[in-house]
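step: validate -> pass
step: tokenize input -> pass
step: predict -> running
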Amino acid sequence: MLLRLGDIVDALGGTLVGSPDTQISRLSPLDLAQAGSLSFLSHPKYTSQLLQTQASAVIVSEATQAAAKPDQVLVVTAQPYLYFAKLTQWWRKTQLGHLQASGFERKSEPLIHPSAVIHPDAKVHPLAKVGPLCVIERGATLEEGSWLKSRVTLSEDCHVGRGCIVHSGVVIGADGFGFAKDESFDASFNASKEAHLWVKIEQLGAVHIGDEVEIGANTCIDRGALHDTVIEQGVKLDNLIQIAHNVHIGAHTAMAACVGVAGSAKIGRFCTLGGGAIVLGHLELSDHVHISAASVVTRSLLKPGHYSGIYPLQDNALWEKNAVTLKQAHKLRERIMALEKALHQSSGI
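step: predict -> pass
step: emit ->
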């Protein structure tokens, strides 16, 4: 597919610097771009790549425009990464249109794959899509425009709102991890009896997922014990995330891969959690809290901000200063030892 850059700018906006007749055949990252590529620069730390790239045109901000070569073709916009996101959507639609215009006919597929198993008492909107080997259990609800990809399980009484995308292997509504310990249990005495150290707490709630939520592959969202686990509108979850029972995640929060949120934690709106971050149970994060990758949240965070660290968790700026100090600890130790040795020698000790 070959497109004029001017047509792209006409469709998506931005200020074009250079020829509108520049030919674009692909979208590429700056460092791998070749002639015909349209690339983007969204972070100042990659500005050096702007001078080295072979891309035919680059999407930049006003702040980074000055760093470009004099003859470089640019699309200037306030938010280059957002522009790139919209460009990928437009590109896919345009590509499909070109294929259809050239005689390619995409075979129509049923919205519900024949291998899907749907309970008669489940409610699936006529415009929802259910992929291969999915299971939708009794009383579950799937709203308009949502798409369950292959091998998704939507357990009984769980709800998925409008326009959601649920990727392969996701399990919505498995039992939460709830067990009561029998302190009177005697392993030797009870060996031949029907007794258990851990007594299961039946999980009587469900999962309620709002509109426009996207859930990555093999993520698990457990049903609540007595009331629902709730994922509000616009939440984005990456792959391999664990959301425990009775967690409440506020609207438009995003979590990267391998995040774990323990039971009954409440996470506010517009939060972000980096990959591998952990939130302990029954804690609360206010709106606009941002947790760095691999951090462990051990206390409630009621003030918006960026937090990092394993132990102790603290304000990100303070953590970075302490981390730099820690990296220099061996040098400080050597200096102290040298000063002590000099002091001892001078004092004749």
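step: describe -> The chain is about 20% helix and 25% strand.
step: cleanup -> pass
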